Amino acid sequence: MTAYLETSFLVSLYSVDVNSTAAVAAMRSVVAPFPLTSFCELEVTNALQLRVFRREITPSEARLSLAGLARDLASGVFHSVPTPASVYEEALRLARRHTAVIGTRSLDLLHVAAALTLGVSALYTFDRRQAQLAHAAGLKTPIRVL
């Protein structure tokens, strides 16, 4: 199964939070390489820096998290993918079809649209609304989100 690992999943995988154990466990059942869009890399970097701002992690922990992601990118766990322009068109289509019912945010729309555009079969997320959107769009969502 090809998978798209979105920001909430990656942040939990590379820094300790309430979902880290589940993220590590989920990695045992998926096969690399995973696409990493430029958009997702930006969002992961920003999410980790926000955790520093909120004093949830230290600057050193954020650097270690980002270094881990960079190592996995260099070793082939991820392959860097420029965010295709068609992602925005797909996100707009998803917004028109699903946001009024699910209440998805723009960034969630972009992740699901990226997964669809890249042709993966599953989206790994800890975000409930994003998982609902992914499921409605036909993607598998292997993580149980409460």
What does this structure look like?
The chain is mainly alpha-helical. Helix 6 packs across helix 7. It has one domain: Rossmann fold (3-Layer(aba) Sandwich), CATH 3.40.50. It contains 7 helices and 4 strands. A two-stranded parallel sheet has the order 1-4. Strands 2-3 form a two-stranded parallel ribbon. The mean pLDDT is 96.
What order do the helices and strands come in, and which of them pair?
Elements: E1 3-5, H1 7-14, H2 20-27, E2 34-37, H3 38-53, H4 59-75, E3 78-81, H5 86-102, H6 106-118, E4 122-124, H7 128-136
Parallel strand pairs: 1-4, 2-3
Q: What key attributes describe this structure?
A:
single chain; 146 residues; mainly alpha; Rossmann fold; two-stranded parallel ribbon; 7 helices; 4 strands
In short:
It is built from seven helices and four strands. With about 150 residues, the protein is mainly alpha-helical. It has one domain: 3-Layer(aba) Sandwich (Rossmann fold).
CATH architectural arrangement: 3-Layer(aba) Sandwich
Give the CATH topology.
Answer: Rossmann fold
Report mean pLDDT, rounded to a whole number: 96
Strand line-up of the largest beta sheet: 1-4
Rg over alpha carbons? 15 Å
Count of DSSP strands: 4
Structural class: mainly alpha
CATH superfamily: 5'-nuclease
Question: What are the low-pLDDT stretches, counting only 5+ consecutive residues below 50?
Answer: none
Shape: globular
Q: What is the N-to-C order of secondary-structure elements (H for helix, E for strand)? A: EHHEHHEHHEH
Major sheet description: 2 strands, parallel
Amino- and carboxy-terminal Cα gap: 23 Å
Strand composition percent? 5-15%
| Secondary structure: helix percent | 55-70%
